[in-house]
Specification:
It contains five helices and five strands; from the N terminus they run αββββααβαα. The protein has a single domain, classed as GIY-YIG endonuclease (3-Layer(aba) Sandwich), CATH 3.40.1440. Helix content is 33%, strand content 21%.
Length: 139
């Protein structure tokens, strides 16, 4: 798997996490290869943070809860606006370093190329699901 920039289907990402370490491939279930993500989170004021992880789902939720100490929590970078997937850690690290070396304008252009409205791609990740007739009371 090469970089699959812009695969922003949060439902698929959530499902992928649910089946870790397995990946659904057609009708068969195969052992999941290692997968790494380079991502960009931002604050409401537009501060950008670039990071790397082996679980985009977990890391996005950690950012939302302020569990990542340092720059991202200090500046409230908790909105996932961009990510790319890699099957090779060295490629992911190289891409992270590349993006960190870019100008702010170039980073913004990259985000806008895949997420024009800067939507939080992980906004609903980890949310409780209610079924017909269920109430939020008592949850």
């Amino acid at each position: 798997m090469e970089a699959n920039a812009g695969s922003f289907d949060s439902v698929n990402a959530s499902l992928r996490e649910a089946f870790t370490p397995f990946r659904m491939t057609g009708l068969r279930v195969a052992m999941k290869d290692h997968e790494y993500f380079v991502y960009i989170v931002c604050s409401r004021s537009g501060t950008l943070y670039i990071g790397i992880t082996n679980s985009i789902y977990r890391r996005a939720l950690e950012h939302k809860r302020g569990e990542i100490e340092g720059f991202s929590s200090k500046y409230h970078c908790d909105r996932l606006v961009y990510y790319e997937g890699f099957d090779d850690i060295h490629k992911a690290i190289g891409r992270e370093k590349q993006l960190k070396g870019w100008t702010r304008a170039k980073k913004i252009a990259l985000i806008k190329s895949k997420n024009q409205r800067w939507e939080d791609l992980a906004e609903k990740w980890g949310a409780d699901i209610l079924f017909a007739g269920e109430s939020m009371k008592g949850r």
